[in-house]
């Protein structure tokens, strides 16, 4: 069957009119005025959004345009090194997201989360919803995000505390966290300080002291070069050495044996018990007398408070010469009693030396007087001969 072109055009026109959208509230008189067909979005909106009341906003004092203008006028400018307050809102990418009131949240990397963050997870260093102070350490990236740091704030505060301790020449304790060939590393207010091996007293720099807390004093504090050097020996010397005197009997422990004597730990200090001061009898093999770890009693016979060194003796505690080789336990049991007798003997010797010295001085005085008298007599004779 063949259709003419005019018939096809007429059929299309009638179909178009049949699907023309006319609002339900349009009067019949205006039904001839066709409107645009609804979009898919309009259809879904009418179906699912429900009734939307019309609100008259003509009298409102603040509109959407004003709101956009206000947001645009808010100053979000942050400068590098500014310290601002923020809140930890979530953990992400090994760090934390911090709300600091900027257009975008700031990011806190793990390595900047604190002085003690090394080797930890981010949730071990900061808590969600925690209020923190952070330092801006970067410019905004393409997303408007800033990098922030807690570590740098703590770093500055730690140096202030360290400098205050140094100004007071204070005694403090710090934990050993590592050892190396030159000495040990300790943490002071979160800062790493070097403890030279030569300034360790009563021990050596080995892994055995990691975790120990040692009394310390500063040797060098230089914030510009980030240099901290401390001394355990100086702390010991200025505390315990002040309470020690020559002649005191002290308890100690043999730490090491050398051909020339034994090193004895006394109250955290290292003292030398020379082989000649062990006994009045000759010692051929020191290992037959002592072993490392043996507990001993010694008398202090000399000390160097400046360098923290003390010289010790067990010979002065022998009730009878040679007792250290025959019965060292008896020597230590009677140490205080023998030391008291030793002091009495030393005091008697001192007085005897003073008396002897006084006699010598008096004797010299008599000689001087005799010489003077003879000189005066001779001078008188000479004068008489001259006058005559």
* Average of per-residue pLDDT values: 80
Radius of gyration over alpha carbons? 48 Å
* Broad CATH class of the domain at 243-341: Mainly Beta
Please work out how many helical segments DSSP would assign.
8
The CATH superfamily title of the domain at 243-341: Nucleic acid-binding proteins
Sequence of secondary-structure elements = HHHEEEEEHEEEEEHEEEEEHHH
Strand content: 25-35%
Spatial strand order of the main sheet: 3-2-1-4-5
Strands, total number? 15
Shape: elongated
Helix content: 25-40%
- Poorly predicted segments: 1-32
Based on secondary structure, the structural category is alpha+beta
CATH architecture assignment of the domain at 243-341? Beta Barrel
CATH topology of the domain at 243-341: OB fold (Dihydrolipoamide Acetyltransferase, E2P)
Describe the structure.
Among the domains are: 83-149, Nucleic acid-binding proteins (OB fold (Dihydrolipoamide Acetyltransferase, E2P)), CATH 2.40.50; 158-237, OB fold (Dihydrolipoamide Acetyltransferase, E2P), CATH 2.40.50.140; 243-341, Nucleic acid-binding proteins (OB fold (Dihydrolipoamide Acetyltransferase, E2P), Beta Barrel). By secondary structure, it is α+β, with helices and mostly antiparallel strands. A hairpin with a 4-residue loop joins strand 9 (213-222) and strand 10 (227-231). It has helices at residues 5-18, 40-48, 64-73, 151-168, 232-239, 323-326, 328-333, 335-387; strands at 83-92, 95-99, 106-108, 131-136, 148-149, 172-179, 183-188, 191-196, 213-222, 227-231, 249-258, 261-266, 269-274, 295-304, 309-313. The chain is elongated, with a radius of gyration of 48 Å.
